Amino acid sequence: MLISVGVLAYNEAEVIGKTINSLISQSVFKAVDGPLAAARWQIVVVPNGCSDDTHERAESALAEAV
Questions:
Q1: pLDDT tens column, 9-59
Q2: Backbone angles phi, psi at 31, to 5 degrees
Q3: Strand, helix or coil at 42?
Q4: Phi/psi at 53 (nearest 5 deg)?
């Protein structure tokens, strides 16, 4: 099962890393039993019309999380 989580962001460069880290620290990502234990997760960050470096910082935070 693939579960996708979408994060819509507009000029969130200053907080997007913290947001992604907070999301990944949720217990659902650490499930060891039940139906979510075998799930694959996909986090999609959509920098919607940003004029800052939200995209780069999100990409960096996701790379560090993997």
A1: 999 999 999 999 999 999 888 888 888 888 899 999 999 999 999 999 999
A2: -60, 130
A3: strand
A4: -100, 40
